[in-house]
Amino acid sequence: MSYEITVDLTTCDGIFACLVRDGRFEEADDGLVTLPDGRREDGELRVTFDDDRLGEARDAAAACPLDAIDVREVTES
To answer: Which Pfam families does the record associate with it (predicted)?
Structure first.
């Protein structure tokens, strides 16, 4: 299953509740969150995964007290 994780880096303030729910989330050098192979652009971090860890990603998003993380399934057209 393909899905995209988007982190609004202007909202994220480094509480890191997401790290506890999904081990792919890590602390970046700037004190905010990062993800492997994530692309930073226009104040957002985006990465697409194709694996069976959608539930973990959703748990990480739900744990963010600032709602800075969005997870959406990617449908191919």
So the answer is: Fer4_15
